[in-house]
Amino acid sequence: MSAAPERERVRLGDLTTLKVGGPAELWLVEHTDDIVEATREPFRVLGAGSNLFVADEGVPERVVRLGRTFSTLDEMDGRTDLWLGAATPVPGLVRRAQRLGLSGLEGLLGIPAVLGGAVAMNAGTRFGQLSDTLREVELVVDGAPERLPAAALGLGYRRSALPTGAVVTRVRLTLTPSTPERVAAAMVAVDAARTGQPKVKSAGCAFKNPEGDVGAGALIDRAGLKGLRIGDAMVAHEHGNFIVNHAHASAGDVLALIEAIRARVPVPLELEWRRWGLPGGDPPFPGHFLGHAVTGSVRAHAR
Ligand SMILES: Cc1cc2nc3c(=O)[nH]c(=O)nc-3n(C[C@H](O)[C@H](O)[C@H](O)COP(=O)(O)OP(=O)(O)OC[C@H]3O[C@@H](n4cnc5c(N)ncnc54)[C@H](O)[C@@H]3O)c2cc1C
């Protein structure tokens, strides 16, 4: 049995890349037992906070985040079949795979996620997404560890259908043998596609690309909205689909800007960001009431 999970009052804006959002109680968990304990009451799960837009009021629920013990490369099954902790930072993993001459993660270059968040969002670019290499995940659901194949996760364009209240703890990826040179060459195109992105505080692309040939960024650009600013929130000059926080943007500034964009773009735009404590945002997960015994072994899910 581990020590009790570490709890701390935090400003969520400090833990997100957009830097917007108020207070919450952070539960930093280092063991599966901690997750079981932390998820007894209503909760939310935080990864690297790079796709999150949080209310100025924060959220009243527990915010569960995986600690360092979930970021180790803790099992290798051959060279290409890897089990990785869900708190593993994606940028370092992509670089490491390149050095080892393993292909499959090039499309994730430049995505500032941890693996758990990358699974939840099926992160990627037009050069490839996590589902290309994802085989299985381990997660804690309803206080019990489980293992699910990737096919059961409903992975699509920037979405997943994880079981309600699932906390992903480990991820199994299968990469393809290549050479460091070839992987690096494939990354050049991915990197080049990012050159136009702003370097200031953001949460990545704000809107999903709608059906059709024209992306959300191009639609916003065509509507002449680059540079549109409300308070400290602004449509980036470099890329129409990036809303940036120039200094101290409030959630209200960002919401007003989103509405101003929607009012002037002729196609309905759906937000790609997850939203906490905001209209139309994600509800918290209910806590589980009957704690299951945690044995250390993981139940394979028969689906
Ligand atoms: C500069 C910049 C560039 C970006 N470029 C891209 C891009 O090219 N492609 C792309 O897809 N995205 C991009 N993003 C967005 C973002 O990086 C991805 O959506 C990423 O997958 C979010 O991962 P995260 O760890 O930050 O998750 P968070 O933002 O912390 O959370 C996102 C969702 O995942 C859930 N979650 C997090 N961890 C877990 C877990 N362990 N178990 C269960 N659920 C969990 C959260 O509850 C939340 O619903 C970009 C963001 C920035 C700031």
Short description, anyone?
By secondary structure, the chain is α+β, with helices and mostly antiparallel strands. The protein is 20% helix and 27% strand.
Instruction: Estimate the strand proportion.
Output: 25-35%
Q: How much helix, percentage-wise, in residues?
A: 10-25%
Number of domains: 3
CATH class of the largest domain, anyone? Alpha Beta
By CATH, the architecture of the largest domain is named: 2-Layer Sandwich
Question: CATH topology of the largest domain, anyone?
Answer: Uridine Diphospho-n-acetylenolpyruvylglucosamine Reductase, domain 3
Largest sheet features: 6 strands, mixed
- Which class do the helix and strand fractions yield? alpha+beta
Radius of gyration: 19 Å
Q: Helical segment tally?
A: 6
Strand arrangement within the widest β-sheet reads 6-7-13-11-12-20
- Oligomer category: single chain
Residue ranges: pLDDT <50 for 5 or more in a row? 291-303
Distance from N terminus to C terminus (CA atoms, Å) equals 30 Å
Mean pLDDT over all positions: 92
Shape: globular
User: Quick one: how many beta strands?
Assistant: 20
Q: How would you describe what is shown here?
A:
The protein has 303 residues and is of the alpha+beta class. It has three domains: 6-68, Uridine Diphospho-n-acetylenolpyruvylglucosamine Reductase, domain 2 (2-Layer Sandwich), CATH 3.30.43.10; 71-182 and 290-300, Uridine Diphospho-n-acetylenolpyruvylglucosamine Reductase, domain 3, CATH 3.30.465; 207-270, Alpha-Beta Complex (Uridine Diphospho-n-acetylenolpyruvylglucosamine Reductase, domain 1). Helix content is 20%, strand content 27%. A six-stranded mixed beta sheet has the order 6-7-13-11-12-20. The chain has a four-stranded mixed beta sheet with strand order 1-2-5-3. Strands 15-18-17-16 form a four-stranded antiparallel beta sheet. α2 (90-100) runs antiparallel to α4 (180-193). The chain is globular, with a radius of gyration of 19 Å. The site of flavin-adenine dinucleotide (FAD) has 34 residues, from β3, α3, β9, β13 and β15.
